[in-house]
Amino acid sequence: MGELIEHSGVVERTERGAVHVRITSWSACGSCKARQACGLAEAQEKVVVVATPEAASFAVGDAVSVGVRRSAGMRAVVLAYVGALAVLMAVLVAAIAGMGWSEGAGALAAIAGVGVYYFVLWLFRAKIEHTIQFTITKI
Q1: Residue 57 pLDDT
Q2: What span, in angstroms and rounded, lies between the C-alpha atoms of 13 and 17?
Q3: Are 23 and 5 within 8 A, CB to CB?
């Protein structure tokens, strides 16, 4: 099936069919022993909504583990970053080399292209959410 990537968190609230879990996401240097000395480590709290038919069995304050398959995480990275970079470069090259636009106009067109790309992702968010499913277990 694929390797599972897990984060621990705390149940913030529950509703019919879904559990809202607060997790702390660390930057790349968040686990470094010298992070207090350099001050570059960042921690962000995020709320993840986990759709589950067992939502009623979780209570506010429960310690839980939230997981996602590595392949689903990679798919999200490709959609969010690699796709946007591909659109940016394609529009930039097409505008400057293909249509002979100035570099400034090409850059503006490329940024607009990325905006359209993210808008299309937003339109298809419900379909994308079904491909990236979280699991939840009590700790």
Answers
A1: 94
A2: 12
A3: no
d(CA 51, CA 55): 8
Contact indicator for 18, 55 with CB cutoff of 8 Å: yes
> Tokens for 105?
């106009």
Tell me the C-alpha distance between 63 and 10, whole Å: 5
Give residues with Cβ within 8 angstroms of 7, minimum separation 6.
Answer: 23, 24, 25, 65, 66, 67
Other CB atoms closer than 10 Å to residue 107's CB: what's the count?
16
Q: Which residues contact 6 (CB under 8 A, 6 or more apart)?
A: 65, 66, 67
Q: pLDDT digits over 49-99, tens only?
A: 898 999 999 999 999 999 888 888 888 889 999 999 999 999 999 999 999
Half-sphere exposure of 114 (CA within 13 A, CB side): 15
pLDDT (average), residues 11-29: 85
Write out the two tokens for 27: 């930057």
- pLDDT of 39 > 70? The answer is no
